[in-house]
């Protein structure tokens, strides 16, 4: 989103496990007013994407993913890549949450359901009691 805010046109390539989720997110953004031509969403294998990125010589690439691919990108792009780590994810529930089990289920679904992206897993979960 930051790329769009700065007036740049991002090329978005996600892992095949999350492609359907990101496609629906983009459809939602289009419904909310994002012009269709503002994002290029592509789906092909990682080798083809690597060739595209190397040939295009972008000023900057943001990468979230495996360290193996990150190291290859850093080499191929002469360090013109920002690597994003998932870090330590906190979830804090306030005192007004009535359906704690449902919130926990949604957190698990966000992490392990359709996309299988464990990077969104909560590292620690706090609940404030009244």
TrEMBL record:
Q: Cite a single GO MF annotation.
A: L-glutamate gamma-semialdehyde dehydrogenase activity
An annotated GO BP: L-proline catabolic process to L-glutamate
The UniProt keyword set, sorted, is: NAD, Oxidoreductase
Q: Which domain of life is it from?
A: Eukaryota
Instruction: Domain (Aldehyde dehydrogenase): give its ranges.
Output: 4-126
Would you name any one GO CC term?
mitochondrion
Report if keyword Amino-acid biosynthesis is assigned: no
InterPro entries in UniProt: Ald_DH/histidinol_DH, Ald_DH_C, Ald_DH_N, Aldehyde_DH_dom, ALDH7A1-like
User: According to its UniProt record, which protein family does this protein belong to?
Assistant: Belongs to the aldehyde dehydrogenase family.
Classification via PANTHER family: ALPHA-AMINOADIPIC SEMIALDEHYDE DEHYDROGENASE, DELTA-1-PYRROLINE-5-CARBOXYLATE DEHYDROGENASE 12A1, MITOCHONDRIAL
Instruction: Kindly provide the name given to this protein in its UniProt entry.
Output: Aldehyde dehydrogenase domain-containing protein
């Amino acid at each position: 989103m930051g790329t769009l805010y700065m007036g740049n046109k991002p090329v978005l390539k996600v892992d095949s496990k999350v492609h359907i989720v990101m496609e629906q997110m983009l459809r939602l953004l289009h419904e909310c007013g994002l012009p269709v031509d503002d994002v290029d969403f592509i789906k092909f294998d990682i080798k083809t994407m690597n060739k595209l990125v190397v040939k295009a010589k972008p000023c900057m690439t943001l990468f979230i993913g495996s360290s193996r691919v990150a190291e290859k990108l850093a080499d191929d792009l002469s360090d013109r890549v920002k690597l994003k780590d998932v870090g330590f994810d906190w979830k804090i529930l306030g005192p007004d949450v009535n359906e704690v089990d449902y919130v926990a289920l949604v957190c698990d679904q966000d992490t392990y359901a359709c996309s299988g992206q464990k990077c969104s897993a909560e590292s620690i979960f706090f609940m404030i009691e009244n």
